[in-house]
User: Which sequence fits this backbone?
């Protein structure tokens, strides 16, 4: 059976930890100038984008190339999908040409429909509900710093969006503790939260949802946030800014976290909104390591599913 990578719950704890180990190995090899393996030689990977991207686009393109494969960038405005060709037909046609399909789209149900029709394995490059490749890079980044998963506390401050949902899945599988602070009306989805809390029983992760950022960061090793208005929510931006304005990650909030706490952000960041320039540029900000780790972890994911 093909191995899609649609959410972190698609994999077991051991499988996810193995992917992180592989990503660390690939990172070391790349750092030493060793790109000896070309396991994707003769294989093509379609990269479909229905939304904008810098990191996902470039890290997948470079990752596929470094593994010896051929990336094919497909903006929705250039392919027939953007003119109304169905998801089911697009998925079946592309599967006749390429060996992996990464897609960034809107509703997660659209990704699931795509994966249901594709015979090639499908990777989620972000949906309105989840961003699993991002959270794999984030977990890898704090694991490189702290060397453990269990016993780490992550505090996510802000909008209960796709990033927050994948943090919930990440906590459930890796077993780190997670506190999400979001104001009323911006909480993470209740069903996604309930499922993560239930799955977390297997790993012992403690997951809490609160409206109080200070409570969330208390004792946190990792403080993270994301934009207040995600792609596709532009018309709600003013209303969300109003709701989230007291959820900024600033120096005072970082001070209330653990003394060795690090700051993560999936990027792109809106400095002065969800995070101050001071925190973003601080010595405890790992945001560019985090962005780099997308490359390594996605290579590991592609090698696992090919
Ligand atoms: N973090 C992330 O996915 O960035 P892009 O939107 O630039 O791909
Ligand atoms: N929540 C953001 C993440 C961007 C990588 C968005 O969906 O726009």
Assistant:
């Amino acid at each position: 059976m093909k191995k899609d990578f649609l959410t972190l719950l698609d994999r077991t704890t051991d499988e996810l930890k193995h992917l992180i180990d592989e990503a660390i190995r690939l990172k070391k090899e790349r750092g030493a100038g060793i790109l000896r393996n070309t396991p994707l030689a003769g294989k093509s990977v379609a990269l479909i984008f229905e939304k904008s991207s810098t990191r996902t686009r470039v890290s997948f393109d470079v990752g596929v190339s470094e593994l010896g494969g051929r990336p094919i960038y497909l903006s929705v405005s250039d392919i027939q999908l953007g003119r109304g060709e169905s998801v089911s037909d697009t998925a079946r046609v592309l599967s006749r040409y390429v060996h992996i399909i990464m897609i960034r789209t809107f509703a997660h149900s659209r990704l699931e429909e795509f994966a249901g029709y594709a015979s090639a394995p499908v990777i989620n490059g972000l949906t309105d509900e989840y961003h699993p490749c991002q959270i794999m890079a984030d977990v890898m980044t704090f694991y490189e710093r702290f060397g453990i998963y269990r016993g780490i506390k992550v505090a996510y401050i802000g909008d209960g969006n796709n990033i927050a949902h994948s943090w919930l899945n990440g906590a459930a599988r890796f077993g780190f503790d997670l506190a999400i602070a979001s104001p009323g009306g911006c909480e993470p989805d209740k069903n996604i939260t309930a499922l993560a809390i239930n799955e977390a029983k297997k790993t012992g992760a403690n997951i809490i949802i609160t409206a109080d950022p200070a409570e969330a960061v208390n004792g946190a090793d990792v403080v993270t946030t994301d934009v207040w208005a995600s792609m596709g929510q532009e018309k709600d931006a003013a209303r969300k800014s109003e709701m989230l304005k007291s959820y900024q990650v600033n120096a005072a909030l970082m001070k209330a976290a653990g003394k060795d706490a690090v700051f993560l952000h999936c990027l792109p960041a809106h400095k002065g909104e969800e995070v101050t320039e001071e925190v973003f540029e601080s010595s405890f900000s790992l945001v560019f390591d985090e962005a780099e780790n997308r490359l390594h972890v996605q290579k590991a994911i592609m090698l696992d599913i090919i």
Remarks:
- The first strand starts at residue 44 and ends at 49.
